[in-house]
Amino acid sequence: MERKRILITGAAGFLGSHLCDRFIKEDYHVIAMDNLITGDLRNIEHLFKLENFEFYNHDVSKFVHVAGKLDYILHFASPASPIDYLKIPIQTLKVGSLGIHNLLGLAKDKNARILIASTSEVYGDPNVNPQPEEYWGNVNPVGPRGVYDEAKRFQEAITMAYHTFHGVETRIVRIFNTYGPRMRLNDGRVLPAFIGQAIRGEDLTVFGDGSQTRSFCYVDDLIEGIYRLLHSDYAQPVNIGNPDEITIKQFGEEIIKLTGTTQKLITKPLPTDDPKQRRPDITKAKSLLGWEPKVSRAEGLKITYEYFKSLPKEVIEKIEH
Ligand code: NAD
Ligand code: UDP
Predict the structure, then answer these.
(1) Residue 63: per-residue pLDDT
(2) Is ligand 1 within 6 A of the CB of residue 220?
(3) Is 261 helix (H, G, I), strand (E, B) or coil?
(4) Alpha-carbon distance 233 to 73, whole Å?
């Protein structure tokens, strides 16, 4: 049988590279695209020798051309960590607007099904906890996080418009904080920040009083949820995340225990508009996809810690603050 062909944008990033692995494992032909603005080719270099894998260094905010037939598109290109999108706000807005427009046009042209990576950030600093898909959110459009949150909200809107007006087959996954191997140690997100600090023998920086909550999902669970959603017939947004909610202070304490560091938690100012609580309501994912997370935080953190420890010394030490 002829292989299904899938385009994955953001393929050299954390999640994109795990998606490449999964679809290669399922015997798809994977066309990977990335402009490497926050990604790293080392995440996918093990795939370069395969005949069913191609890579294109391309900015998807510019016209996207793919030769031949295309069955599926996964749009994951976008800076994703607060320090990244604060550094490159315009590119973040462009990939969430011009980029998605190009990819929806491609999906329409090729008659391909497209799944887009949305985020729990569409709920902003939520007044409802846990967050169901029906909640419209509480986003500050002109605050520092607005460039990411509003790009993702626009992305959802234009995706629904292509679905409704052009009949394009679309899927929207709202991803909640996900972690695992291939996260960048210096991407500023709390998990690599804390583990990196513990490995380097520095104190762990808790922003604010640490009472804000997050719910961390291990990457393998997320990828399984995305795989199931892509193959479902549901076009409305679906939350994928792990509902096991924890305060950032407790999380810091867990990392201290895991790593055995003798360092302590120290406090730094809370960034503007930092959400106070976040936890996915996964009722829809359970009922529509038969999906729920399988990997506990204890297990996932252990695997991720081993990964970070195995990195070359110069990667561990080269951290911007
Ligand atoms: P990442 O930074 O590791 O990966 C993003 C990739 O996109 C990078 O390789 C980057 O170089 C590439 N990219 C960015 N702009 C591009 C452009 N214009 N053209 C081509 N490539 C471009 O981040 P990630 O954590 O893997 O996130 C991937 C996607 O998932 C993003 O869309 C993000 O918004 C979404 N998401 C992630 C999380 C999470 O917890 N990791 C949570 C919610 C949503
Ligand atoms: N955070 C922290 N110390 C750090 C980095 C982040 O206390 O060194 C906090 C941050 O303020 C937020 C939470 O951890 O409340 C999660 O931050 P992250 O950047 O990982 O993701 P997001 O805010 O997008 O959920």
Answers:
(1) 97
(2) no
(3) coil
(4) 15
Task: Exactly one of 28, 123, 148, 179 is catalytic; name it.
Answer: 148
Whether 148 is catalytic is yes
Distance CA 243, CA 131 (A): 10
Q: Hey, whose CA ends up nearest to atom 6 of ligand 2?
A: 190
What are φ and ψ of residue 105, in 5° steps?
A: -60, -40
User: How far is Cα 35 from Cα 61, in angstroms, rounded to an integer?
Assistant: 10
Beta bridge partners of 179: 218
Cis, peptide link before residue 271, omega less than 30° from 0: no
What's the mean pLDDT in 191-197?
A: 97
Confidence check: pLDDT of 318 > 70: no
Q: How far is CA 138 from CA 150, 246, 272, 275, 317, in A?
A: 11, 21, 14, 10, 38
What are the structure tokens assigned to 195, written together?
């583990």
Any idea what the Cα angle at residue 217 is, between residues 214 and 221, rounded to 5°?
A: 165
Give pTM, 2 decimals: 0.97
Look up residue 190 and give its amino acid.
Answer: V
Burial class (CB in 10 A: 0-12, 13-18, 19+), 65: exposed
Per-residue model confidence (pLDDT) at position 66: 97
Ligand number nearest CA of 222 is: 1
Distance between CA atoms of residues 60 and 64, nearest Å:
6
Return phi, psi of residue 276, to 5°: -80, -25
The DSSP call for residue 280 is B
* Amino acid of residue 62: K
Least Cα distance to 112 among 9, 16, 183, 200 occurs for: 9
Amino acid 321: pLDDT? 45
**Nearest one of 71, 6, 14, 84 to 44, comparing CA atoms:** 14
Instruction: Show the tokens assigned to 243.
Output: 């509902």
